[in-house]
Amino acid sequence: MTAYEVRAVPGIPEVSPGDDLARLIAASAPDLRDGDILLVTSKIVSKSEGRIVRAASREEAIDAETVRVVARRGALRIVQNRQGLVMAAAGVDASNTAPDTVLLLPEDPDASAAAIRTGLARLLSVDVGVVITDTSGRPWRTGLTDIAVGSAGVRVLDDLRGSTDTHGNPLTATVVATADELAAAGDLVKGKAANRPVAVVRGLSHLVGGDATAARLVRPAEDDMFRLGTSEAVRQAVTQRRTVRAFTDDPVDPAAVRRAVAAALTAPAPHHTTPWRFVLLESRTARLELLDAMRDAWIADLRRDGRSEESIARRVRRGDVLRNAPYLAVPCMVTDGAHHYGHARRDAAEREMFVVATGAGVQNFLVTLAAERLGSAWVSSTMFCRDVVRKVLALPDSWDPMGAVAIGRPAEPARPRPERIPDEFIEVR
Question: What residue ranges carry the coiled-coil annotation (predicted)?
Fold first, then answer.
């Protein structure tokens, strides 16, 4: 196909709740043919379906239409709405509607498109495709464009994977959002303020047919690399981090762990020092050598405490979270650059500053692992046998092992965290 025509349909009257859109379109475009594609602005669909609320209730309407907040900046909210679309203000719109009212998106845009298509087939005996369109902003790009929010009888995606380009190169990732391209083309002739809410595309009949809907254009959460805004992503990475005690056998990408180390190094520290060192145990041999030595030291301590062999075995099993993890990291603290006062209280406070800084670095490390979709468990057992750890890992005496971090893919979904009320942890003076 080397050419096609896109034209606006004149004469569509003002739409009111209860109006039959198929009948209104058929009256204004009686020359529709098989294979035509109608591009229908969502606003007239919303009006016909009575999706109109008072402007004073706009914020409540946005709340009601919102499934999750993607990003927030001042009063502006980018959210995922109940139709699965990510849009400013959940698609609640104050344009092209009566004063003091706002429009919600159609309840089910795909069903709305199917109803118009069926109605036109009944009234004009034509087989057409229908796309419901709405205006949307785009990440990384300035300006608005129309996209498909509902569809019936149109091939919404053109999957070119497996074919080749003009040079014979294989296409491995090319899936064209055909319905969105049609919506944008229609917007060029409909206009935003010209009272032309419907356009017709002629010459692309090969795109008509099938049962695909615009819902297929919504990227699944597991494939969405940009699911949240920056501040929301940071906050969720912190709040969604969990201590993971069961891991899959999937290997851990060492580069992901190194990115987490890089994040750890941005934590605050006293006197412009860098008190963090991370020992990464990537081989099973190195992990088992360390864990076996730590286990033996723990057993010796427990026997000195007078524990029974049964009690000792039960306690030692707690270390399985480290033994079963496919990757271990041992964060260490160094106090190079610490001040020495020759005064017990002040020297103790100086060390505590470095301990706090190390904890901040480890927190950065754990949160970044969570952002990499890696589970982790910070276990403090190395602190009880530092000499053993230093000997096995051949570490300098100045390195203090501050725990071991088990790392891997979580073997099960995270359990909900018990709610904590911030006010219970706050004192205001």
Answer: none
With DSSP H G I counted as helix, E B as strand and the rest as coil, what are the percentages for the chain, rounded to 5? 40, 20, 35
Give the relative orientation of helices 230-240 and 344-371 as an angle to the nearest 10 degrees.
Answer: 110
By CB neighbour count within 10 A (0-12 exposed, 13-18 middle, 19+ buried), where does 206 fall? exposed
Cβ pair 276, 264 in contact under 8 A:
yes
Binding annotation for coenzyme F420-(gamma-Glu)n: 301
Residues belonging to the binding site for a divalent metal cation are 93, 134-135
Residue 80 identity: Q
Structure tokens at 194: 């010209």
Euclidean distance between the first and the last CA atom of the chain, given in angstroms as a whole number: 73
Same domain for 264 and 117: no
- Binding-site annotation, residues for FMN: 269, 380, 417
Q: Which residues are annotated as a binding site?
A: 12-15, 42, 47, 93, 96, 134-135, 269, 301, 380, 417
Residues 202 and 253 in one domain: no
- State the Cα–Cα distance between residues 32 and 9, nearest whole angstrom: 10
Number of domains forming the structure of the chain: 2
Q: Please name which of 184, 175, 193 lies closest in space to residue 145, comparing C-alpha atoms.
A: 184
For residues 50 and 128, the answer to whether their CB atoms sit within 8 Å is no
* Any domain includes 230: no
Q: Say how far apart CA 245 and CA 259 lie, in whole Å.
A: 22
Asked if 281 contacts 328 with a C-beta cutoff of 8 angstroms, the reply is yes
Do 187 and 281 lie in one domain? The reply is: no
Residues 194 and 254 in one domain: no
Q: Binding site membership for GTP: which residues?
A: 12-15, 42, 47, 96
Give the structural domain span for 219: 5-223
The pLDDT profile of the chain, 429 residues, written as one tens digit per residue, is 578 999 999 999 999 999 999 999 999 999 999 999 999 999 999 999 999 988 888 888 888 999 988 888 878 888 899 998 899 888 888 887 888 888 999 999 999 999 999 999 999 999 999 999 999 988 888 999 999 999 999 999 987 777 877 788 887 777 889 999 999 999 999 976 678 999 999 999 999 988 889 998 988 888 887 887 777 777 777 888 889 999 999 999 999 999 999 999 999 999 999 999 999 999 999 999 999 999 999 999 999 999 999 999 999 998 899 999 999 999 999 999 999 999 999 999 999 999 999 999 999 999 999 988 899 999 999 999 999 999 999 999 999 999 999 999 999 988 888 888 999 999 999
Which ranges constitute the DSSP H helices of 17-57? Answer: 21-28, 42-48
